[in-house]
Amino acid sequence: MTEVTREQTVLRLGTAALFALVSIYVLTRSLGLGYWTDIGPGPGFFPFWSAVVILVCLAGWLWNYLKPPSSEHDEDTILGLDADLLAEQTSDPSSAADVAPSAGVVPQRWHLLVVVASLVVVSLVLVPLGFQLAMFLFLLFHLRVLGGTGRVLSLLVAAGGSFGVFVLFTEVLRVGLPTAGIGLLRGLGL
Amino acid sequence: MEILSNLGMGFSNALTPENLMFALIGCLVGTLLGLLPGIGATAGIAILIPLTFNMELTSALIMLAAIFYGSAYGGTITSVLLNIPGESESAITCLDGYPMTQQGRGGVALTVAGVGSFIGGTTATVALVVGGSALSVVGLEIGPPEFFALVVFGLSLLVGLVGRSVTAGLMSAALGLIIAMVGIDPVLGMPRFTFDVAHFFDGLNFVPVLVGLFGLGELLDTALGRTARPRAPRLRELLPTRGDWRRAAPAIARGTAIGLPIGIVPGITNAISSLLSYSVEKKVGKHRSELGTGAVEGVAGPETANNAHSSAAMIPLFALGIPASPAIAVLMGAFLQNGLTPGPRLFVQNPELVWTVIASFFIGNLLLLLLNVPLVGLWTRVLAIPPAVLTSLIFMFLVLGSYAVRNSVIDVWVMLAFGLLGLLFRRVEIPLAPLVLALILGPLMESALRQSLQISQGSFSIFVERPISAVLLAVAALLIGVSLFGTRLKKRRLLPADVDS
After folding, report:
1. What is d(CA A8, CA B18) in angstroms, rounded to the nearest whole number?
2. Interface pTM (ipTM) of the complex?
3. Element at A183 (helix H, strand E)
4. I need a labelling partner for B382 at 20 to 30 A (CA). Which of B83, B265, B302, B390 fits?
């Protein structure tokens, strides 16, 4: 089994487990909510059947993935078009020519984890630090550390994307954004 | 005659400086969203919905609709210049659009695509004007059983015809229905799946859910993707020759004839229209042997079909209250968020709003034609902005858009959770489109089902006794059955994994 296949299998089984857990929870909970009432279906009726659909389809989905590959030869056209070319165009945009790597400086999986972690952190500090400071630091981290962008450009974009956007949204568009929960920062207008 | 006077009223409202400005903003933002990697119309419209809370409703809807059809133009630019389809419906444009760029004729491809899109979009909007109000009369006769059947039919078309796995599509739709059930039960008033968190009593707001699934999910999926910097075509390179027009005109006509009727059917997506149009060109085009090597028909046909489809897809939304694609579902969400339910009653209850929005479609298509072709140079410069700058700003907007819906960090967490789910779905090829449609339509679908069963005192026979619902449910069952077991449709690996893939 190749690395890619192993990763795919782990992902598929993980997804299946997630779906199974959600649907079993919904199934049991919906019976508690009331499947049927005097005036017709209860609050649990619709979720119950949605969960049943998931469980039934999940079995089919896993079976399709785990069963041995069919020896049947795939048709090579769809709507009269060349299948391989089409599959390439619809599923692999990175096949494009003249494509240059972006300025990422960390390996892909780590990059993904760091991006997710940074989003978790920014949502944690959004209320105590306020939108402006939290977003300024977030943008600076993404631009400088993850993106390797120049110092001046990073500062300009981070300031515009935090302080500038705050003013635009709160003053012009009248959309509320969080100000700092910490008194000292609030005093500084953050 | 009444239609013309209604449309006239719509134009007089849509042509006010304020509404014109919002149509223009929508067109520009839509094109930008179509261009940028990692964010499309669905997430873009969802992010911008909170911004519209303080706007006049008509202006807000004009802007959001313009974003929707503007994004298709942006997707074309990346398909032609970079060989990267911004949206799945633009994928087929790469086949001839990119070779045209390699031959130094990328500008011609974009101009022909722009004109074709304008013709297709405008013709379909005329059909919306004529057919929408007529169909809405039929729509007024539709009761809860028929509405429930119609939604099931739409979902079955989406699940049956799009995506590589029917079972995955059904799972996605069912999960969308469950997510839609979170909150207070509308009939008995008891909380469902809220985990006793007061924030969830109002349900999971669709904005952070969709921003997560389509915005963050896509961005994480392409976290370290590769980005290209195209060369902007010079102005004289934008002008097609007389020969180009002679070859493109029949393809544009065929593309319109294909995209318009297919767009009306709920659940069938633009990608199908584009593919079918290319397939027809391959069969009947005068220069069919040149397709795939940079033939102008290969751009004109699919791009026209795609835009005709997009505008025609508004017909089921306005006439029946059924969105045909995830992006239109989000647009429907914007209506719902403002207390309006799209559907046949809207023509009766809010004729001014409906006709103004419809009139704005004509204006928007014209604006896109007038602005985008000359602005190709500007758009290519946008693509030259360092990817780190673009992605970090998009992340900022994802957080901002999610927070601003209800001024709550909980919605940012919801967005994050669904972003990870969106990433997982992409990796294992579970389509997101059925989830979105089910999420938006779920509450309406459940209430239609419960109302139907209350009418029939609990008997499911109501769905087969009423002819419209019986036919729709039978066709839906047939479609799912054929998709699951039919031999030809088993070759689904050839289909796009998702509508917005």
Report:
1. 51
2. 0.84
3. helix A183-187
4. B302
Mean pLDDT of the B170-175 span: 94
pTM across the whole model = 0.84
In B105-164, the residues whose Cβ lies within 8 Å of chain A are: none
The DSSP H or E segment spanning B366 is helix B351-372
- Return the H-helix or E-strand segment holding B424: helix B409-427
Q: Is the Cβ–Cβ distance between B100 and B76 less than 8 Å?
A: no
Q: Tokens 């006709």: give the residue.
A: B355
Contact B336, B52 (CB under 8 A): no
Tokens of B407: 């001024």
Q: For tokens 């952070």, name the residue.
A: B208
Query: Chain B contact for A5, CB < 8 A?
Result: no
- Neighbouring residues of B406: CB distance < 8 A, sequence distance ≥ 6: B199, B202, B205
Number of H helices, E strands in chain A: 7, 5
3-state class of B75 per DSSP? helix
- In angstroms, what separates the C-alpha of A176 from chain B's closest C-alpha? 7
Whether residue A47 and residue B193 make contact (CB cut-off 8 A), yes or no, is yes
CA distance B240 to B110: 10
CA B246 – CA A185 distance, rounded (Å): 66
Distance CA B30, CA B307 (A): 14
Contacts of residue A100, defined as CB under 8 A and 6 or more positions apart, other chains included, come to B226, B227, B228, B229
DSSP B192: E
Q: How many residues does chain B have?
A: 501
Q: Could you report the per-residue pLDDT of B369-423, keeping only the tens digit for each?
A: 887 777 877 777 777 788 889 889 989 999 998 998 889 999 999 999 999 999 9
What tokens appear for B207 in the block?
């904005």
Q: What contacts A166, CB < 8 A, 6 or more positions away?
A: A131, A132, A135, A177
Contacts of B87 (CB under 8 A, 6+ apart): B34, B40, B41, B71, B72, B75, B270, B500
Phi-psi group of A80: left, alpha or beta (phi > 0 → left; psi -120 to 50 → alpha; rest → beta): left
A71 in contact with B at a CB cutoff of 8 Å?
no
Determine contact, residues B170/A64, Cβ cutoff 8 Å. Answer: no
Contact in structure between B433 and B499 (CB atoms under 8 Å) = yes
How do residues B253-302 score in pLDDT, each as one tens digit? 999 999 999 888 876 777 788 888 988 888 888 888 888 888 999 999 99
Nearest CB to B171; choose among A58, A78, A111: A58
- A180 within 8 A of A131, measured Cβ to Cβ: no
Cβ count within 10 A of residue A174 = 11
B299 membership: H or E segment, kind and range: helix B297-312
- Number of neighbours of residue B20 by Cβ within 10 angstroms: 17
DSSP run (H or E) holding B357: helix B351-372
| Euclidean distance between CA atoms A123 and A102, whole angstroms | 26
How far apart CA B366 and CA B372 sit, in angstroms, is: 10
**Number of neighbouring beta carbons within 10 Å of residue B54:** 10
How many CB atoms are closer than 10 A to CB B453? 22
Instruction: Give a three-class secondary structure readout of A53-98.
Output: HHHHHHHHHHHHHHCCCCCCCCCCEECCEEHHHHHHHHHCHHHCCC
CB B132 within 8 A of CB B315: yes
Q: Write out the two tokens for A31.
A: 């019976």
Enumerate residues 25 to 44 of chain B having a beta carbon within 8 A of any beta carbon in chain A.
none
Interface of A with B in 94-113 (CB under 8 A): 94-104, 108, 111-112
Question: Helix, strand or coil for residue B315?
Answer: helix
Contact flag B386-A147 (C-beta cutoff 8 Å):
yes
User: In terms of residues, how long is chain A?
Assistant: 190
Give the separation between CA B34 and CA B409, rounded to whole angstroms.
Answer: 28
